[in-house]
Amino acid sequence: MLLKFENHLPLAALDVVSTGQTSAWGCVTFSAEARSVKLTDAIAAPKDPNAWCYIRSGSPQERADKLENYLGPVINVTRGRPLKTVWINRLPSMTPAKAGDARALAMPPINPFPMEFGEKVAQFKSMNYSLGVVTHLHGGKVQATSDGWPLHPASYDGNPFFLPSYRQYLYPNDQRAAMLWFHDHGMDNTAPQVHAGLAGLYFVRDESDAEIFHLIGGEAQELPLVIQDRWFAEPSAQFPAFTAFDYRKGVPLADNPDGGRPEFLGGVIVVNGRPWPHAHVNPNVYRLRLLNGSNARTYALTIADPSAKSGGKVWRGDLLTAIGNDGGLLCEAAPVGEMQYLLLAPGERLDVLLDLTSVPPDTDLHLVNLALAGYDPQKPEDAGIFQTDDESVVAPGDEAAKLIAYDANTFDAAEPLAHVLLFQVRAEPHDHGGSDHSKAPAPELAIDALNGILRRYAADESFHALPGAHPQLAPNPVNAQVARNRFVLLMNNTAGLGGASPHTRGPWRDTQMWELRPATNPASDQSVFSLPFDAHLGDPSRRGETAGPVAYQVSRAFFFEPEDPAPPHAPRNEDPLWGIATENANPAGFPPVFRYPHIYRNQPASGRKVAKPTEGTYERWYVANIGNDFSNLGAKKPDMHPFHMHLVNFVVLKRWKVKDGGNQFEETTGGRPLDFDGVARHDTVRAQSNELLELLVHFPRGYTGRYPYHCHLVEHEDMGMMLHFEVQPRSPR
């Protein structure tokens, strides 16, 4: 396939704004709008809206007839300086299907998955129609009222559901310097609405940024890179070639209700809103701020020189040094090996230095993706979701070199999905659309000085770094001790079971999330099952450990109430994640009344509890990604799930995996060094196939209320792989 890298990496096209360095900036207003957007440099924007965009009030984008980019603003704030935001919904509604029916939000202009199709497909039967948009600041430490609760949308103007058309949030920015992002979080509609374009970047800055920029030569060397995958829609009278995206093309279930993959995977890699762009760079050190904004695709990223012009080597992972991730800077720098790669799952971020000071000018380096094991370009719809490194990554070497083969003269690429971005290393200056790169080449990266910066900024209210040659994060001693152990299963229906589940009293769904409790029923009860791990749920003084079979029951598996809300709470026979369609059908002449299903309630007497951590405390969360054949956990490999918790940061302390051919877990902590176990704060972490993680979670002081946690494969989130916790205030002394 021809791959010309003819698009420029768009930086100037993004609405970059700073809220000031010396004082609070006040209020920023955004609106969600349907806009006509340019998707490639060579093709003009269409006459009709082809994307949904976040538009900042007062920005050039607000006044433009057509936009250069669909990505939302890049907001820079100063740590400790609060920012008030207003999010207005200016998207239209659909007409009702018949008199008395509720109107839903207009479908995104991307050929999205039809909601009514869910009546035929088990995975989608309970999904709700979109009533509006919900903005979530991913990674933000904010009050629950500003988090973007999925059931609190900003609905369309004049809606009959008594929902506001805007939401006002306060972001305290009382957290470490980090790269956050904001995106839509509408209940059951996150996938198509993010795919339609609703995403933007949010940087919390402090003095650590100034020190790093001074070390590498200046803030102009920072490149934010939002990596996504898309399909371009077939040309039509409304949308000419390369002017519209197609969501349905990437979801095989849309054409095959009896089987197929429910997650979206695209065939075109898009960076900052442009397919396969190039970036003109100089022999300097660059700070790459990487975000995986894809719906479901995981990337294994490294640097390659297919022509081997740089030092006679094809693989140049050694040009990369990881310095941060979701929760900000690491405790110490993590140099990437020549033959290594960095994994980036949906929702994850990485802060990486790219050292080009030793690369000769006129070299073309490729940022490549090697998470393509088993991929058949002739059958892209059969591509699988990431499982493990061994199953899903073609490691750097001869086989991977076949994937990245690229002829610069004919623009012929062996596998386009292996290519993300082209770095054109040149001696002459280039402004990158606004950033001056005309300085003399910087000195080679000074690792000792870099580590000095990272260690100075390693402590915060939640964790501090233990002294030593290789510092590890530990609980801040001013906080309370570990108050609770919890056990969560990211549950995959690998056994293909149908009908009702004896464990949940609901149907076996394709993917689910279960909270566990110690079994109280006899072992012969069908609701009881055993796992070879003891999470010590009743004793937080003890850490979880491998053990003989330990009996558990499901405490909770549903985001919504699985019984009728009114007494006598009669069990429903259908899917307990029922949708709003039937709730909104009213006789002609009566206004429809909006009502989401009732949120899951705490009912300890029936063994059903909602997680209620206390602010200022730590909890150990054991998160296992397994299939539902409990007698043989290693029989099949479930999908990898990026596990995301709102509000908090957590540290991965331990890992285990299911032994091959067995039904036991074996410890693997530190086995993948570039997963940063013990040295990184996460808000999203990859739970690979048949893997179990120990997370040390801190619930910050001063933040209480209701927050979701979920899988960040957004189709899984929409399909019900989401639960919530309710942070409680500390008891007065």
From TrEMBL:
UniProt keyword Cell membrane, yes or no: no
Organism: Methylocystis parvus
Stretches assigned to the Plastocyanin-like domain: 602-730
Record bears the keyword Metal-binding: yes
Taxonomic classification: Bacteria, Pseudomonadati, Pseudomonadota, Alphaproteobacteria, Hyphomicrobiales
Keyword set, alphabetical order: Metal-binding, Oxidoreductase
Pfam families to which the protein is assigned, alphabetical: Cu-oxidase_2
PROSITE patterns (UniProt xref): MULTICOPPER_OXIDASE1 (PS00079), MULTICOPPER_OXIDASE2 (PS00080)
GO molecular function ontology, one term from the record: oxidoreductase activity
Protein name in UniProt: Multicopper oxidase domain-containing protein
